[in-house]
Amino acid sequence: xxxxxxxxxxxxxxxxxxxxxxxxxxxxxxxxxxxxxxxxxxxxxxxxxxxxxxxxxxxxxxxxxxxxxxxxxxxxxxxxxxxxxxxxxxxxxxxxxxxxxxxxxxxxxxxxxxxxxxxxxxxxxxxxxxxxxxxxxxxxxxxxxxxxxxxxxxxxxxxxxxxxxxxxxxxxxxxxxxxxxxxxxxxxxxxxxxxxxxxxxxxxxxxxxxxxxxxxxxxxxxxxxxxxxxxxxxxxxxxxxxxxxxxxxxxxxxxxxxxxxxxxxxxxxxxxxxxxxxxxxxxxxxxxxxxxxxxxxxxxxxxxx
Length: 305
Fold this sequence. Notes:
InterPro entries: PNMA, PNMA_C. Helices cover 57% and strands 3% of the residues.
């Protein structure tokens, strides 16, 4: 009888719930594809156009860095690369794909480098990589990014294999970074040369450590030491009242100078002195009364005594 009347209320509700779940899942997949395609469209627009007449080296450095940072499939990277090419440069890749339809992005860049790049042997490219050093004032993350472009050039020239990149990169960072770099010490990069991290993992760790140390230095600059303001580390607005208070405490605690009324550290303009407490330390309140002063006249001149 129930079969003739159709499914009951329970069956209808479960079917509706399943249908809603399927609909939500399908909608989520569609949104994911839309977001991914939009992100890829924006990323492709960031690539510079190259036809063959422009300077190749700056274009290669920019394109290599952008393609390496994109967390997208290889096919999408190749599509964006082809869209950024025109003229003779595009003809090179078309010919390459006719010979090998499964050619990789790395092979495409190598082919463009052989035709439009500078005439540089593997020894020269590897020598430039080994001679790269961190400059004074240069962040370690900026040095690693600059070094990576030289390493990729050496790989394209055949001086270094792709399997050796992580080990070769870390060895040169340890060699070329400034002596006793705090980030290298904190991340223990010297001890990790046998099991080096990938480029993406390395640059992530370095940037996070740079931000952590910058935040630590900022908060350290906010804390004034007893001997005054740490102006060398602080880039905030001046606070003369707070600095003068710290200096005054330092003078009063110092045994190298005697506190004399009217003497002390130079007071910044606009800073008022705090009330003095002349009561000797350790004497209970009320044990010592006010000063006994009377007015007397000496040779016709009134004065306190």
